[in-house]
Structure prediction request, 158 residues.
Amino acid sequence: MEEDSYLILMQNQEPTTKLLEPLVRSHPDVLIAISRQEHSIADVYMQAKSAMNVVLALRPPVQIVSFAEVEFLVKLSQTNLTNTIHLVSKLEDTVDLLDTLRSFINHNGSVSFTADELNIHRNTLQYRLKRIHTLTGKDPRNLLQLFELTHGLLALHQ
Prediction:
């Protein structure tokens, strides 16, 4: 479909895990999105693409994601709640801040786990979180504001 994207259609109703395990083993960097079974190929494609967009936005530590697992996040990304996309776009020039925000989200706001994953000191993480707050006006340490930043990341990759 694209230079680094492929669409695989399967009519198999059995769990796809057994079919995908060899692919994941042989390609450790592969990301796979699985749709629900639908009658329309267009619906299948849109579900898989939407699930992949969630993975690209949040970068969770998974290789395989199903639309059913991230359906809420897909719908959230398609909802125009506020201009949060513009908030997060302010972070695009600073990859370390985007990576910090993604890791912080994936670790449910845990400073310890985020600092460990990023291999940085907790004080460095606190500095980055303050920098995100300064650039976006949203404090990632505040749950509701973190939710806004999460929405912004999702909308950015819609």
